[in-house]
Amino acid sequence: MSSPLLELKGVEKSFGTNHVLRGIDLDVAPGRSLVVLGGSGSGKSVMLKNALGLMTPDAGQVIFDGEDVTDDTGKDREAMRARVGMLFQSAALFDSLTVWENVAFRLIYADGVSRPEAKERAIETLRKVRLGAAVADLRPAEISGGMQKRVGLARAIIARPDLIFFDEPTTGLDPITADAINDLVIEQVKELGAASVSITHDMASARKIADEIAFLFEGRIIWRGPASQIDRSGNAYVDQFVNGHAEGPIQPSL
Question: Is the pLDDT higher at 61 or at 1?
C-alpha cells in the first residue's frame, strides 16, 4: 500500500473547557476512501477543519504528502489547499453566481484561468456528475437539492485534487438521490485516484463509499477497520451506532 497522503498525529483542539479533539490519529492513502462516523458533537467537523488548516490544533501534527503543514500560513497553506477538493454539507453554492461560475470559482479567482476556458472546463466537469450544459447558466435557486449537491461535487473535482473531503455528502437528500450521489463519489474518487475522507452519520452512505471506516467518539478514534467489518467490530459503541439503538454506552442527544 502507498504511503499516506494525509496524516493526523495526536491532534488536539479545545474551546475553553470543551476538549473537542483529544488526540486524533488518522491517515488516508491515495486511492483510498476513509469514512469517519460519529454522532452529533463527536468532533467530526472540527477534525475536518483542522485537517484543512481552517483551524490550528492545540497539539499534534497535520502531515500532508510527507510535509508537516500544521502551522503553515500564506502561500505554503495555499499550496496544500490547491491540491484539495471539498464538498460541503449544504453544497455552499454562491447564490449570486451561475452554476458554471460556482464550479469554476477556483479556476477564475485563484488560478487565473480565463472565463471562456473556465466555462468550458466547468461544463465538461458538470457532465462528469451527470448534469448537462443546460444547467450551466442557471442560478443555484433554480435547481433541486440533489442537483446542487452534484454542482458542489463538480466544484470539488474540477481542479483534479489529490485529496477530497466530503462533509455529510447525502444530508437532506431522499434515499434514491443519496444513492446516486454515493455512486458519483465512488466514480470520481476512482477516476482521480484521490485520497478521500468523508464525515457522516449516514450508515447507508458509509457502507457504500468506504474502503475503511473509523469511529469518532468524544474526540478520539475508538475503532477503525475495513468497511466489511463494521457489523463485526466487537466495539459496543460502534455496534450501538451502526444498529441505531437508543440503549447502550452512547447517551442520546435530547
Answer: 61
Distance CA 101, CA 211 (A): 33
pLDDT by residue (tens digit) across 88-111?
877 789 999 999 999 999 999 989
Predicted pLDDT of residue 253: 67
pLDDT for 161-183, tens place per residue?
999 999 988 888 899 989 999 99
pLDDT for the residue numbered 254: 56
Domain assignment present for residue 91? The answer is: no
> Do 226 and 167 sit in the same domain of this protein?
yes
Cβ(57)–Cβ(50) below 8 Å: yes
Domain range for 53: 1-83+162-249
Mean local confidence (pLDDT), 25-43 = 92
DSSP per-residue codes, the chain: -PPPSEEEEEEEEEETTEEEEEEEEEEE-TT-EEEEE--TTSSHHHHHHHHHTSS--SEEEEEETTEE-TT--HHHHHHHHTTEEEE-TT----TTS-HHHHHTHHHHHTS---HHHHHHHHHHHHHHTT--GGGTTS-GGGS-HHHHHHHHHHHHHTT--SEEEEESTTTT--HHHHHHHHHHHHHHHHHHT-EEEEEES-HHHHHHH-SEEEEEETTEEEEEEEGGGGGG---HHHHHHHHT-SSSSSPP--
